[in-house]
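hey can u check if this looks right to u? its 80 residues, i copy pasted from the old doc so theres a chance i mangled smth
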Amino acid sequence: MCLAVPAKVIDLLPGGMARVDAGGAVKEVSVALVDDLAAGDYVILHVGYALARLDPAEAERTLDLIAEMIAAGEAERAAS
């Protein structure tokens, strides 16, 4: 199974790279496939590559849903 997640561009780096925040995990990724990015933009991230720019509201909704799923899983494990 493959999973792509929203990430917020923190800053652009040389060589078609950027530092992004993917739900609290800061990573350096390739942004060579996405034109005209700026710090603060959201992208969809898959295996170290930004694939496309995302609408900020949609990115935030998706990140909130992911956080809810993680919290539900942790609560379930704690109850076991």
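The mean pLDDT is 93.
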